[in-house]
Design brief:
By secondary structure, the protein is α/β, with parallel strands linked by helices. It has a single domain, classed as Phosphoenolpyruvate-binding domains (TIM Barrel, Alpha-Beta Barrel). It has 15 helices and eight strands. Strand 7, helix 14 and strand 8 form a beta-alpha-beta unit. Helix 3 crosses helix 4, helix 6 runs parallel beside helix 7 and helix 14 runs parallel beside helix 15. This is Aldolase. Belongs to the HpcH/HpaI aldolase family. InterPro entries: Aldolase/citrate-lyase_domain, HpcH-HpaI_aldolase, Pyrv/PenolPyrv_kinase-like_dom, Pyrv_kinase-like_dom_sf.
Length: 313
């Protein structure tokens, strides 16, 4: 056998062994890192990003963060750019070194639709089909809206299963998501956690108004709600204050947090280097430490301080 043929044969064999190893580990390791951290009772740190560039995708994939929130509410709703961005975040070296398919930085999308059933269903379907690991739904006000958000995130279930409700509304054509996740059993995994304990998708509700604060108990009681994200700036504006620092706004934040802690629902909020340690100590399970275009000095500092507060350094 020629040397080139020998090396080619060895390379094919090694690639097959690697694929088998990754496949075996991926059957036991969660794909959604945020859920993994929730189940380990570890806080998670992320970034809010409006930058869909491939350069930023590479920066995010190697940032040391746990998740990225891609904001398509205040940036253009461009699914083709989102698809390229997600594929650009694929870190093949990390997959090789870890031996599993869990992204180091898991991507989520905040969609623009708020309240309208047709728009929410259509937008949720599109961002899920390109591979995002969950959706953050803006301006959730009540139980009905939260239930619609959950239904838009999940597929219709098989008759007779315990978690049939809330009945899923998502259509089945996730070709890009299957490719991006790197699994053959996408439909089995693509359900909402914690309603489906093996689900890899998160339906997260943004709380941004006094109505949502007043209805927080009924919102978090919807099966399939994977977390609550408090938006302090929008909350303060909707309450009639010019700053999130107003005592009344902080009281509303604490009311939502207390409900989430009581019912063991992960709660999130935006932070910075001045506030991240306090928020982690208060019990927030996941936080953003900055915005856009990689880790700025401020975001890096907030990430370091947050991990210190969580005992992760």
């Amino acid at each position: 056998m020629k040397p080139a043929t020998v090396w080619r044969t060895i390379g094919i064999a090694l690639a097959a062994l690697l694929a088998a190893s990754v496949s075996a580990q991926s059957d036991t390791v969660r794909l959604n890192k945020l859920i993994d951290l929730f189940e380990q009772d570890e806080p998670a740190f992320g970034l809010l990003s409006f930058d869909y560039s491939l350069t930023n995708a590479r920066a995010m994939a190697n940032s040391g963060l746990d998740f990225i929130l891609i904001d398509m509410e205040h940036a253009p709703f461009d699914v083709e750019r989102l698809r390229a961005f997600l594929l650009g975040m694929t870190n093949k070296r990390s997959i090789l070194e870890k031996g599993n398919l869990q992204p180091d930085v898991v991507p989520f999308v905040r969609i623009p639709a708020a309240g309208g059933a047709d728009e929410i269903i259509a937008q949720a379907k599109q961002v899920l089909d390109v591979g995002t690991y969950g959706i953050m739904f803006p301006a959730i006000q009540n139980r009905e809206q939260a239930e619609l958000a959950v239904r838009a995130t999940r597929y219709p279930q098989i008759n007779g299963v315990d978690d049939y409700e809330p009945q899923g509304l998502r259509g089945r054509n996730p070709s890009n998501a299957v490719w991006y996740w790197g699994v053959r059993d996408y439909h089995a995994r693509a359900d909402v956690w914690p309603l489906d304990p093996q689900g890899e998708l998160l339906a997260i509700m943004f709380v941004e108004s006094p109505e949502a604060v007043a209805n927080i108990e009924e919102i978090i009681s919807v099966p399939g709600v994977g977390g609550i994200f408090i938006g302090p700036s929008d909350l303060s504006t909707s309450m009639g204050y010019t700053s999130p620092a107003a005592p009344e706004v902080e009281a509303a934040i604490q009311e939502v947090l207390a409900a989430c802690l009581e019912h063991d629902v992960p709660c999130a909020i935006t932070t910075n280097a001045r506030t991240v340690q306090q928020r982690i100590e208060q019990g927030f399970r996941f936080v953003t430490v900055g915005v856009d275009s990689g880790l700025s000095a401020g975001a890096s500092s907030a990430l370091r301080l947050g991990r210190e507060a969580a005992g992760q350094n």
